[in-house]
Amino acid sequence: MIYSNVSITFLCADDAPYSEQASIRLTDTEMVIDISAPSSQERAYLVKGHLVNNFYAGQDDVTESGPLDIVARWAELGDIWVGWWLEDGVEYLFSFRLPRNAVEPSEKAHRKSGRRLTPARS
């Protein structure tokens, strides 16, 4: 599933809270946070989190601005995702909600998840 225009709020002890818009891709074993056009930051981010037990853990991949020293961990808590983000030695807490409307990359993803594209008829 791909979620667009997800607002991620970052909190840091040294700065005021701020939000970034992201796209989030979710598969059975991975969640990717893609902040490609940050509003208040000068960098783009592509953090690939791999499922570890009941949370995701990952680091920034090579993006247009080059590799960044970022490590992140996040988990679902009710209907909100909360996490810890370490960037160049500075710690942040972050949170986001996934919208209810998502885009399936293909019909194959529907079959894999067991969902039907059209309602079953009796």
Describe the structure.
This protein is mainly β and 122 residues long. The chain is built from one helix and eight strands; from the N terminus they run ββββββββα. It has one helix at 107-113; strands at 2-12, 15-26, 30-35, 45-52, 55-60, 70-77, 80-87, 90-96. A hairpin with a 3-residue loop joins β2 and β3 (30-35).
Number of helices: 1
Q: What pattern of helices and strands is seen along the backbone?
A: EEEEEEEEH
Main sheet attributes: strand count, strand direction, barrel closure: 8 strands, antiparallel, barrel
When the domains are counted, the total is 1
Mean pLDDT reading:
81
- What share of the residues lie within helices? under 10%
Content of β-strand: over 45%
- Kindly identify the CATH topology: Porin
Briefly note the structural class of the backbone.
mainly beta
- End-to-end gap: 28 Å
Q: Using the 3D structure, state the CATH architecture.
A: Beta Barrel
Number of strands: 8
Shape: globular
Q: CATH class, please?
A: Mainly Beta
Rg, rounded, reads 16 Å
Provide the low-confidence segments as ranges: 107-122
Strands of the widest sheet, in order across it, are: 1-2-3-4-5-6-7-8
List the helices and strands and how they pair.
Elements: E1 2-12, E2 15-26, E3 30-35, E4 45-52, E5 55-60, E6 70-77, E7 80-87, E8 90-96, H1 107-113
Antiparallel strand pairs: 1-2, 1-8, 2-3, 3-4, 4-5, 5-6, 6-7, 7-8
Q: What would the keywords be for this entry?
A:
122 residues, mainly beta, Porin, eight-stranded antiparallel beta barrel, 1 helix, 8 strands, 6% helix, 54% strand, globular, disordered C terminus
